[in-house]
Amino acid sequence: MTGAAIWPPAIFVVPACALAIFLVFQYRGMKRRERDREAYKFRQTFFAESLAEVNQKAAVEPVPGTRELDAETLAAVRFVLDRALQPVDQFKGFTIIDQYQPAALRYQINHMGFALGMVQGHYTPNFHGYLLDAQRNLIEKYRHPKVWGYWVQESMWGHFNFFSHDPVIRDNIMLSGWFSMHVGQYTLATGDKRYGEPGSLTFKLNESKAGFFRFELRWTPAGQATSWTCRVRTVAVAPFISVEDGTWSGPAGKVTINTDRGKTFIELE
Question: What's the whole-model pTM score?
Answer without folding.
Answer: 0.63
